[in-house]
Amino acid sequence: YSTFQGNIKWPKTSLTYRIENYTPDMAVQDVDRALERALQVWAKVTPLRFTRIYSGTADIMISFGAGVHGDYYPFDGPDGTLAHAFAPSEGIGGDAHFDEDETFTSGSMGYNLFLVAAHEFGHSLGLSHSTDPGALMFPVYSYVDPDTFSLPQDDIKGIQFLYGPNPDVDGGNPDPNPGPTTPNACDPRLSLDAATTLRGEKILFKGSFFWRSFSQSSQVEQHRIKYFWPELPDNIDAAYESLESDRVYLFKGNQVWALFGYDIVQGYPKSITTLGLPRSVTKIDAAVYDEQSRKALFFTGNQIYSYDEATRKVDQGFPKSIKDVFPGIGNKVDAALQDRGFTYLFNGQYMMEYSYTRRALRVLYTNYFLGC
Amino acid sequence: ACSLPIALPSTAKNDEEVAEAYLKRFFNLTTPEGPIQRRRISPMTEKVREMQRFFGLKVTGTLDSDTMQMMNKPRCGVPDVAQ
What we know:
The complex is a heterodimer of chains A (372) and B (83). Chain A is of the alpha+beta class and 372 residues long. Chain A has helices at 28-43, 113-125, 153-163, 225-228, 322-325, and strands at 14-19, 49-52, 60-65, 81-85, 96-99, 104-105, 111-112, 194-198, 201-206, 209-214, 220-224, 238-242, 247-252, 255-260, 263-264, 270-271, 286-290, 295-300, 303-308, 313-314, 320-321, 335-339, 342-347, 350-354, 360-365. The two termini of chain A are 21 Å apart. Chain B has 83 residues and is mainly alpha-helical.
């Protein structure tokens, strides 16, 4: 997180706000509710309390305007800049302006007013932008379900640095249930949901996020899954890159999605039964394309299936027990990928490296590819 | 003369314009006034790198597609670095 220069904040904890005008995109009561909820996001974790006033000058004046709208920072039409707000101070300080050229909604279409407002009110209270891609104060908009929204831990730490915790919760002790945290690549206990190659990159999934590891550089990028692919679910089960079809397949539950490069393939998700897997397979834990046998390997429970994409059939003699095919990895596999002839199987915080003859070579940490 | 970022062959002119406007607005890129000092690296390249570091992108100093994609994402209008 970051704060403004001098850690400027309000010298009081009771603040007023006033909604000066409304967007025609939403019903008045929906705007009222979205803005009130957005302020409560911050009240819940601090001593700050907000009172609405209907005339005069409030600490936080809220308005909708397009283009040049009365300050030195004109808006830019649809998309681009969605809104801005001013750091705590007298006058324009604390005020929040929303670009009327956007379409604000209560749902996932357009831009969700609650999410945009919760971010802007973070500025109104003294937070600047965060570099944490999972933080509410990350500058780029990404949709998350408002009904399950929970203020990320990075933002809680930032706002409590300025105002301290909510004295009405646990007597002001730090919240025992911290907000959601963005997966830390350098956590030695890191485990993965899924892993795949993608045209020379390695893509490692965890929760709502993924890392991009570039073979030619040690740098690793972390993004929200929905930053690149709004259509994909969080908490992916498995993923693999098919060298037959130049597609990446991603699995969750009994559904499969497909990517062509970084583009989502239309017509998905489909049921995994379309892959010709037996109906007894209701979920895939990990998947990898084996260049040696030119088969897709699916791991489910303590079993492994070898699948022929051309005939869309499971090979004779499968399923087999994982430990008979890949000795040493144990009874389950969280994720799998193949790179330069080596197969990497992930189980919890460890990853095993196998030669193309499936001889176990090394035991490594799961975050081996994450540049720690 | 200051060197402009290494323009990838595919870098459209308007990418540079988009990038310059973005970096001025959010990363405090200023257009050097007065005699152009001989600089090893242009202010624009420095700011491209600063932006790439902020967003956790590969730090190349060039307007690669990932960087341009990030610049074109809908976002908050408050600058990312102190003005």
